[in-house]
Design goal:
This is Glucose 1-dehydrogenase. The chain has helices spanning 6-10, 35-46, 59-71, 86-100, 124-151, 174-194, 212-215, 222-227, 237-248; strands at residues 26-30, 51-56, 75-80, 105-108, 155-160, 199-204, 259-260. By secondary structure, it is an alpha/beta fold. Helix 3 links the parallel strand 2 (51-56) and strand 3.
Length: 269
């Protein structure tokens, strides 16, 4: 694998100024200790969120992310959570309500990608890990989050899916692609069920974004992949985070069941 720097793949982080679009909101981010989730949590704080709850498995990384949120001006709480376990998701939402009294906005970001290999070489154990994290866990989250949102008079949810769920660009990642397609279908179905009750549910579908998962994906030459995108670069987690916060805000008040492709034009090409 060719070693490259972040700026070689994605260039400098574009300037996108917050405008208070989440002022006073109580927000929750699963998988919020690193990557896109951490960037989204920080952006929520910058957008004026009153509090951001971070869920994840890694205690040290989660506490560090919570400290960054406090530095950005928001109250923060890290709750160690394995979202594949329904009871732990229930405790996460309960802890949010106990601490802050309500829940307004959610970004379901936790995800898992298998080791790159043809489908005939993947095992039942790998299948279970991929679908438990990307689909079953999302169902757990919606099951507990939606009643909390309804109790507060409504709110918004954004699920993190992938362009792989719309068009599989990754040979060797069939399980990941299939799980993200399921997550997209789950997003759209839940959106239709709860829009009449004031809960807007949408998704982002990132393409090539420079995260730990992307860098560990087994791509031999990252520069070549970046150069082949319409923007001639990969994306930053902060760019996806800005899209997430827009979807969660009242500015997107008429957007329901939408899959926003933060992919640098990949699907258009």
């Amino acid at each position: 694998m060719v070693e490259v720097a972040l700026t070689d793949l994605a260039g400098p982080v574009p300037v996108s100024r917050p405008n208070g679009r989440l002022a006073g909101k109580i927000c929750l981010v699963t998988g919020g200790a690193s990557g896109i989730g951490r960037a989204a949590a920080i952006r929520m704080a910058q957008e004026g969120a009153a509090a951001v709850v971070i869920a994840g498995r890694r205690q040290a990384a989660g506490e560090a992310a919570a400290a960054a949120l406090r530095a950005a001006g928001a109250e923060a709480l890290f709750v160690a959570t394995d979202v594949t376990r329904d009871a732990e998701v229930g405790r996460l939402v309960a802890a949010t309500l106990q601490r802050f009294g309500r829940l307004d906005a959610v970004f379901n970001n936790a995800g898992f990608q298998e080791r790159r290999a043809p489908i005939a070489e993947q095992t039942d154990a790998v299948y279970a890990q991929v679908f438990d994290t990307n689909v079953r866990a999302l169902a757990h989250c919606l099951r507990h989050q939606i009643p909390a949102l309804l109790a507060g008079g409504g709110g918004a949810v954004v699920n993190n899916t992938s362009v792989s769920g719309l068009r599989n660009p990754n040979p060797g990642l069939a399980l990941y692609a299939a799980s993200k397609a399921a997550a997209i279908a789950l997003t759209r179905s839940a959106a239709m069920e709860y829009a009449p009750q004031g809960v807007r549910i949408n998704a982002v579908a990132p393409g090539r974004v420079v995260t730990e998962m992307m860098l560990a994906s087994g791509i031999a030459d990252m520069r070549q992949v970046a150069a082949g995108l319409p923007l001639r670069r990969m994306g930053h987690p902060e760019e996806v985070a800005a899209a997430v916060c827009w979807l969660l805000s009242e500015e997107a008040g008429y957007v329901v069941g939408h899959i926003l492709c933060t992919d640098g034009g990949f699907l258009a090409g």
